[in-house]
Design brief:
11 helices, elongated
């Protein structure tokens, strides 16, 4: 029952956002009482934390797929951050808006639990990019990754973009590409510009 509550609550959070959802609304499709929910979770925030654990495990698996699908580090790194923006500003915008602005500590905790997993994928990707001449040879992968992550967080949590209504392609090209291209070589820029997906 606990897993089923998490599954249904996550679907409801993603569909309706977080702030507007009560425990009762979250489990309506299950036809159970709030008393049953409180048997497993002390509060709505506790339930949300469990939902985030499931959500970010799913996202990590998607990250692995993105990195495996691309044949060069430039497109892989760009697509990774573009996919993040697709989630933050896409169909689940209300959910991520609520999460970023009202529950950032819960989001931080969920991401922190997977930081080693993310680092174990992304740092080798950056190192490969350096070795293959895509990224600056003077780059320190750990610092670069932390910088890109900090910039991404500032985009998704900034007041400047919380009501953004333009295209995701625009957002990607004017923010993600500008930031990430700072570590690219001429070879990387040429390959990126020749990939039709990146110029949609």
């Amino acid at each position: 029952m606990k897993d089923k509550i998490i599954e249904v609550a996550l679907q409801r959070f993603l569909q309706h956002g977080i702030r507007s959802m009560t425990i009762k609304k979250l489990v309506e499709p299950l036809g159970i009482s709030t008393k049953t929910v409180y048997k497993y979770f002390g509060s709505k925030e506790d339930l949300l934390q469990e939902c985030l654990n499931v959500l970010y495990t799913t996202y990590f698996n998607e990250l692995v797929t993105i990195l495996n699908d691309k044949d060069n580090p430039v497109t892989a790194l760009y697509n990774l951050f573009r996919a993040g923006l697709d989630k933050d500003f896409g169909v689940n915008h209300t959910f991520f808006y609520d999460l970023n602005y009202y529950y950032p500590e819960l989001q931080n905790a969920a991401i922190h639990r997977r930081r080693d997993n993310y680092d174990s994928l992304l740092i080798p990707l950056i190192k490969t990019g350096i070795d293959e001449g895509y990224f600056s040879k003077f780059l320190i992968p750990e610092i670069a990754l932390k910088g890109i992550s900090t910039l991404y967080t500032s985009i998704t949590r900034s007041e400047e973009y919380k009501h953004y209504e333009g295209s995701l392609s625009e957002l990607s090209n004017h923010l993600v590409k500008v930031y990430i291209s700072g570590i690219w070589t001429e070879k990387a820029l040429q390959e990126f510009d020749n990939d039709p997906y990146n110029n949609e």
